[in-house]
Every structure is written in C-alpha cells, then in structure tokens.
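Summary for the steering committee. The consortium agreed at its last meeting that each partner would contribute one worked example illustrating the joint modelling workflow. Our contribution is presented below. We chose a case with several input lines so that the handling of multiple components could be demonstrated. No manual editing was applied between input and output; the record is shown as generated.
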Amino acid sequence: MKTYVAVDLGGTNIRAAIVDEEGKILEIKKDKTEASLGKEHVMAKMEELIASLGGLNEALGIGLGIPGPTDTINGKIILSNNLPDLIGYPIADRIRKRFNKPTFMANDVKVAGIAEALLGEGRGSNNLYYLTISTGVAGAMILDGKVLSGFHGHGGEIGNMTIDPNRESIGGLNKGAAESWVSGPSIVREANKACNKKFKHAGEVFEAAKSDERAKAVVERFKDDLAVLLAGVCFVCDPEKIMIQGGVMKSAGEFLSDVEERMRKLLFPGMRETTLAYASVEEAGLVGAAMLAKSELA
Amino acid sequence: MKTYVAVDLGGTNIRAAIVDEEGKILEIKKDKTEASLGKEHVMAKMEELIASLGGLNEALGIGLGIPGPTDTINGKIILSNNLPDLIGYPIADRIRKRFNKPTFMANDVKVAGIAEALLGEGRGSNNLYYLTISTGVAGAMILDGKVLSGFHGHGGEIGNMTIDPNRESIGGLNKGAAESWVSGPSIVREANKACNKKFKHAGEVFEAAKSDERAKAVVERFKDDLAVLLAGVCFVCDPEKIMIQGGVMKSAGEFLSDVEERMRKLLFPGMRETTLAYASVEEAGLVGAAMLAKSELA
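What follows is the complete predicted structure of the assembly.
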C-alpha cells in the first residue's frame, strides 16, 4: 500500500498525517499554527509535526494544502490574510530539502478538488470542476486527475469573475464579482437589506425564503447568479461534473436542483449532461494534500 | 522528417494537404465541398483528395479540421449550418478505416489554436488560450500542446458566455452573450443603430470612431465587453497568453492594447503578466489539422 504525507496548514491549526492511496488517514498529528510568531516558528512546527509521523520513512511524497492563492510551481503563498509572514517564502522547497522527498503544494480548494476527483464524486471522470461556496468563492479545474494551476497559479479564482458588470464593487473585487453575490456573506448582506433583519448565516435566509417574499427574491437572484457563473465555467472547459462544497451547501436542498436547471438552460443543448453534485469526501483538505502528491507522482 | 495529412473541411471547399512537423505545407489538393449533394458525396470527395496525395503513405496520421461544435472523442459533427447532412456521421472513423491511419478531428478554432500553440505565438508555453473574433466568437484552451475538448466536445464555446445578463438575447444566444456584443456583426449592428448609418464591417466602425463620438461609444463598450470576457477566461484557466485571430483583428491597432489594459485591471495583481497577442500562423486551419494529429500522437 502506497502512502503519502499530508499537511493542512491553516490559520489556526497545522495538521500532518499519513494517508494511504485510497484516502484513509492512518495517523494524524496536530498543533496550533501561531502565525503571529513568524514564519520560522510556523515552518519549525510544520517540520516537527511531519518528523513525528511514524509512517514518514515509507511515504512516497509530501503534499501541502495551503489557504488562498498559491504558486504551485514554486511552492509559495501568493496572498494570505491569515499567514502574511509566509507570503513568498519557499515553503515547499524547504520541506522537500528537509525530508528529501518529492513535495507538492497547492491551495486548499485545489487540494480538496483533487480529493473529490480521485476518491469522491469525480472518480472515473477526467474532466471535473470543483467549487467552494462559503465565505469565499473559488474553484479548481481537474483534468485527468491533475489540478490546473494556471500560469500564475491563479487558475480557479472565479470568485472575481464578473457575473453582472452593472452591480457595485464590494471589498475590492470587480464590479458584480461572483463572490460578492453568491457567497454566504453576500446572501446574508442582501437579505438583511431586503428584509431589514439581522440574519446570522445563509441557512437562515433560505429558511426565511419559504414564507417571506423579500427573502425569496434574494434567493432567486442568488440562483440566477450562480447559474450564470457555472455556465461560464462550462463554456470554457465543459466539465462532466461540477462538485460543490462549502457552508452554503448545507442548504443545497433549497437551491441546487433549480440552479442545475437554470445553468442547463444557459448551455447549448449538446452540453446539458453536466451535473451538479455535492462534494462527498470527508477531511478533503487533509486527504487531498496526500492526493496532490499521489497525482503529481503518478 | 515526420509528416501528417491535414484536411480542412469547409462549407465551400475541402482541402487536403501533406504537412511536415514544422508546419510546412508540402503538397495541397482542393475541391468544392458541394454539401447539398449529401454526405456520401462529401465523404467520397474527401477520400479522393486524401488518396491523391503523393505523400500519403509516409504520413503518420490524419487530422481533420471541421467548422462548428465537434465531438472530438467520437469524431462527429455536433452542429453545422453549412454541413447539416454530416451532423452525427462518424467522419473520423470512416477516414481512419479507409486509410488505416490514426485519425483525429476537432473544430476549426481548436485546430487553429493548436497551430498557434505549436508553431506560432504560443511556442514554448504550456497554458494558452486561443480566441477567434469574427462573425462568431469561440475559443480553445491549449494545455501542454493539446487542446481541451471538454466532456461534450463544447469546451471553448465562450461565444455564449454571459458578459451582461441585463442585455437582450440575440439570435437564440443567452442574454448578453459575448458573441452578441464583441463579434464583427455585433459591432456593426450597434454602430448602425447609434450613428444611423450603414457600416459594412467592423473596420469602418473603428475608423469612424476616430471622429464620431457615437461610434466611439460603441467601440469603448466593445473594449469593456471583450475585457470582461477575457478576464473571465483568465479566472478559470489563468493562461500565459491569449492569442486572438479573426476578421475584427484587422483593426487590432485600434483596440488591442486598451483591451489588454482593461483586462489586467479586472485580474488579481498576481495574474497580470498574461498578454494578448496576434495569432501569427498562416493557413492555421489547414496546418493546425496536421498539428492536431501531431499533438495527439506525441
């Protein structure tokens, strides 16, 4: 049985694990990130965690899952709110040299997408799109079991795609950017405005939409906007499946089939077999880091 | 020197050629398509043309370039105004069996994109986008020298991508579809409306925009719309270069640098090295059919 080291570097915790080729977590270690203590501190913690794994010697490679835009080619963080001190630092290089194993790095969305492609809903398909709809909106194209990073490592940053150029710019994103209209916080923002309420999360808005016409209008626009975004992805890469994950998917029963129907109406008749699916792999961020190493070593 | 058979099947003419691996056309034959006489007639013509090529025996494979959406996996035409009788017919299979050579088929835009990737502006890059802006608008993603067809063979049909959902639907496309606002005919349509004139082609509109504010407004909107479309492509696949071809590019001097600047403003700072380039390969439709065979046999 082939095994890989997986590292999930988050703003709060670092986790390191030994994962087998079928995605089973055999061993896991965890520690606080303590990013405020600087990059040397974080890197040393990561190294300690990896070194403490009993299965380290047998592992064929190391995969690192990192939040936010990542330069997968050079193994560096491009942008990060939680780990600003690590921006530009050659993380993958350092880990590669320290442990003398092939080391690969990609952002958390891409890594989860690979997990889904190799182990979950996407198994057996060679053209997939993976999307997270949560606080942020980002995606990853997975072709033949490998994630497309793009020239600058920004492939999949579709949260900034324009879905309606007539709307305002929010939080520095483009006017009418997808993330400003289909993310969890955007649903809450629009519903609070429309209903003059203080919804706590998108789930409450979907619930309210069952009896409140104003909340319903917000949800209907969300469905239209998401359909436009997904159709745009389909026109570029025509995936077999779009697998969706993220907090907003807790309410998928309230919107996913409508979005699929509206997306298909926007597609050419010959493209309408593309399905929307729930992402299904548990611990995809950690397991996916191992699958990144597996896919790159395949 | 390796050689390939290239076939360019058009609504008016069929051309068959022997092309070497560097894209040099060594031999070329041409005949009328006469599509109205039915698929058997067209297929027999194609076979005759190929059979008449002196370099046929030595050729390693056959590439077919076909207009419109094409099922590259099964080698069939999906949709066609000019060749309706051939829709769904197993063109590639028949040619493969008749000549006993590996045979590949893709639409004319994808084929031209491969030519550009292997021989032209895209040489040396492994992540490219190719776009035609002519009567229609369509694209092709070229990764590691191979074109992305997509699950249904519709990858690259970005003419139907929504760039502004508030605009009308034209010719059966989606509301605010790219092709309805950045194609040659769309520029002429909008300028005729704005200026109450009868422009013949987009080049006249770009010329008029130098002195007529109303024509200028049409051109400025075209630039904004094209920037939104291209930025959308970048957010999905983050290409190194976007190579553009088509009739509207005759006026590229009047818009391309502005579009590049506006596109970059829409991108995240770390993505702004992506360049717009003129497609440069001559006879890309024919030469690209050979490059399709070369790339698939590589």
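Chain B has a mean pLDDT of 94. The CA atoms of residues 128 and 142 of chain B lie 5 Å apart.
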